[in-house]
């Protein structure tokens, strides 16, 4: 099991746009305690927060994200490649979307505590911004 500073970050969300949201809550347990693990409660429908990120999901190919509106506490753009690293069952997943702080903090903590696991995947979070802010910034550059 990973350290509690990685597992107790709360409900982790990545918004994949039209595909919906993936929700997780990493929880460590032992023995009988593991038989009574309750799945995370889905977040309530939150309003759009003005942030936008590319969002997509693809297996065995690159995905090109269409812009999606972030909601609630999704303040980061997450982008990653997950690779099984096995020749027998090759599985490569590309994904992008809006993410909350809990997801991003867990990724940072997981890779810091288990660098041997980061060889098969890369995942990063950056603060999201609105498309209009990006266009405005590009116009102001000489």
Automatic annotation (TrEMBL):
GO terms for cellular component: extracellular region. Keywords: Disulfide bond, Secreted. Its main location: secreted. It comes from the Eukaryota. It is found in: Secreted. PANTHER family: LY6/PLAUR DOMAIN-CONTAINING PROTEIN 8, LY6_PLAUR DOMAIN CONTAINING 9. This is Uncharacterized protein. It comes from Micrurus corallinus.
